[in-house]
Design brief:
It contains 2 helices and 5 strands. The chain has 97 residues and is of the alpha+beta class. The longest helix is centred in the first third of the chain and has 10 residues.
């Protein structure tokens, strides 16, 4: 059986940190420690309740989105800021937030 936690971590570590991307520029969004894959896809990490990266939303230059693994989507999330910084807003996906 494939261990998605290990695979997701290895995938993250093999990518490069970025300050911006075409997608982020178009949406006027800052990079919050995101990375980019060798093929140029933006990687947005998804964590479990313990803060462990379990999956990624991958966004290509034209805004197409998919997940690294469809297995680990439910119950995982991506957050910006720190708990206690203000109201909590729950969104369907990164772009709508």
């Amino acid at each position: 059986m494939l261990n998605y936690e290990t695979t997701a971590k290895e995938f993250w570590e093999s990518s490069e940190p970025i300050d911006t991307s075409p997608y982020l520029k178009a949406k006027k969004i800052k990079s919050h420690g995101y990375r980019i894959t060798g093929s140029g896809d933006l990687m947005i990490p998804m964590h479990d309740a313990n803060g462990v990266i379990q999956n990624y939303q991958l966004v290509d230059g034209s805004g197409g989105k998919l997940f690294f693994s469809d297995e680990d989507v439910i119950g995982n999330y991506h957050s910006l800021g720190k708990q206690g910084d203000g109201p909590i807003v729950i969104c369907l996906d990164f772009e709508s937030g």
